[in-house]
Amino acid sequence: MVADALISRLERAIGTDSVVVGEEAAMAGAGGWGRVGKPAAILKPATTQAVSEALKICHQYSVPVAPWGGRTGLVAGGWADREIALSLEKMNKVEVVDPDSASMVVQAGCPLQAACEAAEAQNLFFPLDLGSRGSATIGGNIATNAGGNRVIRYGMMRENVLGLEVVLADGTVVSALHHLIKNNAGYDLKQMFIGSEGTLGVVTRAVLRLRPLPQSQDVAVAAVNDFSSLPHLLHRLERQLGGRLSAFEVMWADFYSLVTTAPANGRPPLPAGRPYYVLIEALGADPGPDAQTFQEALGSALEAGEIADAVIAKDQAERDALWALRDDVGQVARNGPVLTFDVSLSISQMQAYVAEVKAALHTWKPGTSLVVFGHLGDGNLHLIVGASPLDHYDVESIVYRPLRDRLGSISAEHGVGLDKRAWLWVTRSAEEVEVMRAVKRALDPMNILNPGKIFEVSVGGAAVFS
Ligand code: ZN
What we know:
With 466 residues, the protein is an alpha+beta fold. The chain folds into 4 domains: 2-87, Uridine Diphospho-n-acetylenolpyruvylglucosamine Reductase, domain 2 (2-Layer Sandwich), CATH 3.30.43; 94-212, 2-Layer Sandwich (Uridine Diphospho-n-acetylenolpyruvylglucosamine Reductase, domain 3); 216-329, Alpha-Beta Plaits; 336-427, Alpha-Beta Plaits (2-Layer Sandwich). It has 15 helices and 18 strands. The protein has helices at residues 2-14, 22-26, 48-61, 112-120, 138-143, 151-154, 189-193, 229-240, 253-260, 287-303, 316-327, 347-364, 392-405, 424-427, 430-443; strands at 19-21, 41-43, 65-68, 84-87, 94-98, 103-107, 124-125, 161-167, 173-176, 202-209, 211-212, 216-224, 245-252, 276-284, 309-312, 339-344, 370-375, 380-385. It has a 7-stranded antiparallel sheet, sandwiched between helices. Strands 5-6-10-8-9 form a 5-stranded antiparallel sheet. Helix 1 runs antiparallel to helix 3, helix 8 (229-240) runs antiparallel to helix 10 and helix 12 packs antiparallel against helix 13. The model has no long low-confidence stretch (mean pLDDT 95). Residues 148, 375, 382, 413 line the site of zinc ion.
């Protein structure tokens, strides 16, 4: 049987203890955030060389392989039902932190939080910050170009990667572990792999850019009475905080009430009843003066009528408590099943867009709940619709179609995976998708790397396990 021959070749190549099959493989994805199906086998290579050997064999057999990071994705990008999953969990080390070049070399399976802590131990800062920081891995963050809470200041993952080591579908190792901020010697290949969702290559190691560890952190929650004040407030803070604004997270009233009332642990730092609440954070180098500038900026926003009320955290416990509200996203599912969306559009279009979606949902099924929050400074909204997964097409249609004319995106930061593939046309032209397919065909002619994710490609790997 092909499957048996393939598994024994893989076992010989990377070691029996690095190949998981049977019930153990099938159950591996149960209970996690990300849906992955029931893999026929999970490969756990411990070195780049072993990743290369494994892919070489799968390529020969023309067998699909789904690369896995921390499996915290929300778009079924790691779906590997009756396929082979390639987990980087054994490659989980921080290899070097180099204070002189302000960079670190990290293996792909290293959890984000562990990478951040290793940087901090050297008084440096890796700024990517996500709710799933404890499980999400650096390789997964790179493959999905993760965003999160501090993009407004530090950019998404692609702005924080200096070099990459990637294994191609046929096992070729492409090593470009440069520590350079400036490198215009030809195409910037790493950017092609960043955000490619495991369809072009498997990230094995990366050089990450580090920043000075902030010495001050000022956090506030402000209440805002009308949407049109939000962009004014945002621009005022960017101006008055001298580039230190690191988060501008808006919570619509419904979200605020979910995360500040039982059974949530959080309590309202400001009374409920306003339409918008903004979590504002600034990171800086000089605690005393930074706190004063922060207070003054909020004071002038209050005077200008851009905010109705604000509370500034006085100590670390209060700062953490304010952030915990924004991070308590799990509350959105407490009243029943929900469908989660991650869209982006220009801030000037948001109010009309949300109103349109809300009205369409009520026409579709009166009483459908819509909870909104997001990284407003990045034009990124998360919409949570109270609806059954069975209704996903109807709801997707309501949420995604209005983005087309507004030149918005169906995915700001979660990626496309399997879940959003049918809606790629809303955001990407036929020509754009054809260029993407051409790149895919050039790098993975057998279509074995995460096939079917983002878009379909006509050639396909063999389904040896079904
Ligand atoms: Zn987000």
